[in-house]
Amino acid sequence: MRSSVGIEQPFSSQPRQARSVKDRPQVQNFGFCSNETWTPNVNLYETDACYLVCVDLAGVDKDKISVFTEDHALRIRGYRLAPCPPEYSEAQKKKLRLHLMEIDYGAFSRVVELPEDVDDTKIEAVHCNGLLWIELPKMG
Hints:
Blueprint: E1 42-46, E2 50-56, E3 65-70, E4 73-80, H1 90-94, E5 106-113, E6 124-128, E7 131-137
Antiparallel strand pairs: 1-2, 2-7, 3-4, 4-5, 6-7
């Protein structure tokens, strides 16, 4: 993929992750948890000094997130619990009847290929307001 001025885009090989209804596991009740992982949405940005990856992880505890590089790719993994009103007791949670569940939960994974000029020894991540911001400094 090239921009209108013919410059190669650093994340051009990233596929658009579309999740249609047919791609989602079928949910029968609140206790259901698929063995499959879900894929969080990301935004990719660039400055003169770095690339930024923003990952939508609403409702995920930062302690449940793992970020690492492997094979020149950024790998983000973790786990999100099924959403439930926080003030409900365990007995109240068991009585909830599910009518619609569009918020993914369970294990998640996302892989972002790294541009060639990323210094993967200096990557930093910050979790703020349900978003994970990962800064990927450029070499040089």
